[in-house]
Write a structure and sequence with these properties.
Blueprint lengths: L3 H23 L5 H20 L3 E3 L4 E5 L13 E5 L10 E2 L3 H7 L5 E5 L15 E4 L7 E6 L4 E2 L3 E9 L5 E5 L5 E6 L5 E7 L4 E10 L5 E12 L6 E6 L3 H12 L3 E9 L2 E2 L8 H5 L3 E5 H5 L2 H13 L3 E5 L6 H10 L4 E8 L9 H8 L21 E6 L5 E5 L5 E8 L2 E6 L6 H4 L3 H15 L14 E2 L4 E3 L7 E3 L5 E3 L12 E3 L5 E7 L6 E8 L5 H19 L9 E3 L3 H25 L1
Parallel strand pairs: 2-3, 2-5, 3-4, 5-6, 8-14, 15-16, 15-18, 18-19, 19-24, 25-31
Antiparallel strand pairs: 1-32, 7-9, 9-12, 10-11, 10-13, 13-14, 16-17, 20-21, 22-23, 23-24, 26-29, 27-28, 27-30, 30-31
Length: 600
């Protein structure tokens, strides 16, 4: 259905045409009737412009937005309106505003933006302004311009941190441990980049110090750097279910050598279980990370066993379904119940194996000096590769490849179900890799498969920014209802989970004091805790200045993109068109009356 503006236009056109035709028929000869008909059409156009004045571009006023480190003596030029954000200094003639969005609402007539000072904070970069924007970042001050803190490191492992300093060529970067001892140092080159490292000791959160010194050894800055050292992870809990076979034999041997907490249920018939038995109830499956089950054993579980397995997968369990033969329609239906949707699986194809190493020297380096169990001459580049086959399957984009051969054929792939994953292993006789001297490839492929589906790390490790300062908004994800934060001064803050975050479980937090904060989250058994360090305000001045300037440059470029360069428009005044329409209507009335009198 046409909108109101279109309907009004149709009515005006119809009325003007009808009036023009009537005036032409009123007097068929002479020019008077034609002139009045033309005036009638013009009257209709003026009426349209009165009801819907033409759009006019907004005036060319520029909104100048002052941010941090704006020169105190800055003055706006004619045609500019100066506003100051909360972090800007006191400026003569500037209007104080709480944020950029408020300024845009108050001054809707502006056509351009100019950002002066250090740049917009994250508060004002959340939304686009839709106006042409100019921003010239200030030069960075001398000091630490970039800091890449170390990742979480296992106890006893080595960690590394990187960074860059501005204006400090010839100076030095030093890493100090919590006791104040220098554990590493580097000379800063022309590009300012440096990398430092050390060893992680006892599990927990510790604070190292990054110290910058100038060319004259004078102290420039001390920056706290948090390091989280992780305790040794618990062994992976794996259950192998199936029938006794060479494949299961070598799979169990590899799992035991890898240090897994292994359980097995191997049905030899007549009620004999050679593996010791594995229970598939809800309680046992909650204590298991990965279940490796062959397709035959899955079919004999029964509806109750498969249902318990599917429910455990939704709760985070990883399941590996190992194909021992061609897939039947019933088998594929059982896989779908677990969360694995594939087609095919009835045809076999050869496996293309890549070479063991690029050359003999690389293979020797990979193998090491050898031992009695694995002599150096066991594997050579000249050894024939084993002839292996896999069952070819067809799946959509939901299936994620975990292991592929040299030509990209799928050896193993997984799909999500709830919080867990189900993987299909299509290589029925992978143990032949071990028999042909390629045990490393066998271990690598099975390690990739189990790593892809194993239950997530049981340690409570929410996701948050590595460097946080007081007064800055931060996002924390991986939370559940009831989570709270305890500050160093003992104050507790309940975290409100954002419903829009969905399963990510994210909440916002504004730390007020520096020091170690603790995230506390209720669990089924006990409360889980996670410590993180909040740096004092101003601990990273040059880093934050660089980040703010770069982010504001990107924001301004987005405003200046061709798709965003539409100038704001508004309706022009209607009164000039109204006066014109009234004058022309009066002329039409007078002319039509004269024409009628002359015809009489």
């Amino acid at each position: 259905m046409p909108d109101a503006q279109t309907l009004v236009a149709l009515l005006i056109v119809a009325g003007a045409l009808l009036a023009a035709v009537r005036l032409l028929l009123l007097r068929r000869r002479g020019w008077a009737g034609g002139a009045l008909a033309a005036l009638s059409l013009a009257s209709g156009a003026l009426l349209w412009c009165t009801l819907f004045p033409p759009l006019l571009p907004v005036g060319g006023e520029t909104l100048v937005v002052a941010t941090a480190e704006t020169p105190p003596d800055f003055r706006a030029d004619p045609g500019e309106r100066l506003v100051a954000l909360p972090e800007a200094p006191t400026l003569a003639g500037a209007e104080r505003i709480p944020d950029l969005a408020t300024a845009l609402r108050r001054h809707g007539q502006v056509q351009q933006l100019q950002i002066i000072g250090r740049g917009l904070t994250a508060r004002d970069r959340d939304a686009d302004a839709g106006l042409s924007t100019r921003f010239d970042p200030l030069p960075l001050p001398r000091g630490l311009a970039r800091l890449d803190p170390p990742a979480d490191t296992p106890a006893g492992g080595l960690f590394a941190l990187g960074g860059a300093a501005n204006g400090m060529e010839g100076g030095s970067a030093e890493l100090l441990d919590p006791a104040g001892r220098v554990v590493d140092s580097r000379v800063i080159g022309a590009d300012g980049a440096f990398t430092l490292g050390g060893a992680a000791r006892a599990p927990g959160l510790t604070t190292f110090t990054l110290r910058l010194r100038g060319r004259d050894k004078a102290l420039v800055s001390d920056t706290p750097v948090p390091l989280r050292t992780l305790a040794a992870p618990q062994p992976l809990r794996v259950a192998v279910i199936g029938s006794p076979s060479p494949e299961v034999k070598y799979l169990r041997r590899w799992a035991e050598d890898a240090g897994f907490d292994l359980g097995a249920s191997l049905n030899a018939g007549a009620g004999v279980d050679l593996g010791g038995g594995v229970r598939l109830d809800a309680a046992s499956l909650r204590e298991t990370d990965v279940v490796i089950i062959d397709d035959t054993a899955l079919g004999t579980l029964g509806g109750g066993g498969r249902g318990a397995l599917a429910q455990a997968v939704a709760g985070g369990l990883g399941v590996v379904v190992r194909m021992t033969g061609p897939a039947s329609a019933a088998a594929r239906s059982q896989w779908r119940a677990l969360g694995l949707t594939v087609e095919g699986g009835t045809e076999a194809a050869p496996v293309a194996l890549p070479p063991l190493a690029p050359d003999a020297d690389a293979l020797a380096a990979l193998r090491g000096p050898g031992s009695a169990d694995a002599p150096t001459g066991l594997n050579t580049l000249e050894d024939p590769v084993p002839e292996l086959g896999l069952w070819t399957i067809r799946a959509g984009s939901q299936l994620v490849p975990a292991v592929t051969d040299a030509e990209g054929a799928l050896v193993a792939g997984w799909q999500h179900r709830g919080q867990g994953r189900v993987l299909l292993w299509t290589l029925p006789e992978s143990f032949a890799l071990v028999l042909s001297g390629q045990s490393d490839r066998y271990a690598q492929w099975w390690s990739k498969a189990l790593s892809a589906v194993a239950r997530p790390d049981r340690q409570f490790r929410p996701a948050l920014a590595p460097l946080v300062q007081t007064g800055e908004r931060m996002a924390i994800c991986g939370l559940a209802e009831g989570a709270r934060i305890t500050a160093p001064d003992g104050a507790e803050t309940a975290l409100a989970i954002d419903p829009a975050a969905g399963a990510a479980g994210c909440a916002a937090f504004w730390p007020k004091v520096a020091g170690v904060h603790t995230i506390i989250q209720p669990d089924e058994e006990a409360e889980e805790r996670f410590d993180f360090l909040v740096l004092p305000d101003g601990a990273l001045p040059t880093v934050r200045a660089a980040e703010t300037g770069a982010a504001t440059m990107l924001w301004a470029a987005r405003q200046n993109a061709p798709s965003a360069r539409t100038l704001p428009e508004r309706r022009g005044p209607a009164w000039p068109w109204l006066l014109g329409w009234l004058a022309l209507s009066a002329a039409l009335w007078w002319g039509e009356r004269r024409l009628r009198n002359a015809g009489a």
